[in-house]
């Protein structure tokens, strides 16, 4: 954040009008909604520290590395008094129907958020535009933008800013927009008026809890990342626990089941951003074709994609599990045998498991 500024006093009418114009400018930049909150995350901090103490973050050591910086915005960016939370929809309308992909064991399922280009650069660029516009309207101010790029408690901040509530699956939910959206923030020293926090509307519904393939949603609003397929396929660096592999089906990068069954996603808005549309046929890819990619092809085909960051070995690990769960065919077995002597132990182990699934004897 730039050096903290002393902002002149403004009337309520002035700041309300500024916030109204800010929302309009945000819509022009492709954001579906914008809200403002203060920096008090006391309740969320308590939950975070309990969650970490229980070890439910698995091997995501970065979750605990920053102490209170994550839950106290003014410690991360001194001078911060407000957080502007912004939502951008990502559901790609032209993508293959998710349930049909999940039902076909010859195909691989990639989480809808990762089908197109990595959202970080686009979101950051738009948030920078919005922050510069605000500075031009309000005068010099301190600010810093975030797109999942620093220790920021995005969902609690968005909930306090009125963008939605944290559902039983721990994703943020909006009554009019479901949960298919990215979040980004602007930390600022400009004392804008704050929005009313969102209230929960899940009621007695537990569709997300019942749908989780691995039982990772252990109670309402309680997620054990160590069981979550998104964690296992993306964040987890080592072998996937054997007792969870068969439960993963053909999910090769992330998992959307808890979102797919959510009633609030029935009318979710499709994205207007072409960058989030499917690339490389990843909305319904054939597993054996993906498994044949060497590292150079993997890097070329995932350029600009969030998938690239897991690396080729983890990509093959995930695909080997999916192939182990696929219907037994000569093509599947041949593909696995071709990787049986892979130089990476991580890949070899999962290939051996998959082959044993097709030939138990």
From TrEMBL:
Binding of [4Fe-4S] cluster 2, residues: 212, 228, 255, 258
One GO MF term: metal ion binding
Residues reported in the UniProt entry to bind [4Fe-4S] cluster 1: 202, 205, 208, 262
Residue ranges occupied by any 4Fe-4S ferredoxin-type domain in the UniProt entry: 190-222
InterPro entries, sorted: 4Fe4S_Fe-S-bd (IPR017896), 4Fe4S_Fe_S_CS (IPR017900), QueG (IPR004453), QueG_DUF1730 (IPR013542)
Subcellular location field: Cytoplasm
Annotated catalytic residues: 148
Key words of the record: 4Fe-4S, Cobalamin, Cobalt, Cytoplasm, Iron, Iron-sulfur, Metal-binding, Oxidoreductase, Queuosine biosynthesis, tRNA processing
UniProt entry tagged with the keyword Transcription: no
EC number: 1.17.99.6
Catalyses which reaction(s): epoxyqueuosine(34) in tRNA + AH2 = queuosine(34) in tRNA + A + H2O
Cofactor annotation remark: Binds 2 [4Fe-4S] clusters per monomer.
GO CC annotation, single: cytoplasm
GO biological process: tRNA queuosine(34) biosynthetic process
Record PROSITE patterns: 4FE4S_FER_1 (PS00198), 4FE4S_FER_2 (PS51379)
Names of the cofactor(s): [4Fe-4S] cluster; cob(II)alamin
Binding sites annotated in the UniProt record for cob(II)alamin: 70, 148, 172, 183, 230, 255-256
Pathway: tRNA modification; tRNA-queuosine biosynthesis
Subunit annotation: Monomer.
Record family assignment: Belongs to the QueG family.
Its job: Catalyzes the conversion of epoxyqueuosine (oQ) to queuosine (Q), which is a hypermodified base found in the wobble positions of tRNA(Asp), tRNA(Asn), tRNA(His) and tRNA(Tyr).
Name the UniProt record assigns to this protein: Epoxyqueuosine reductase
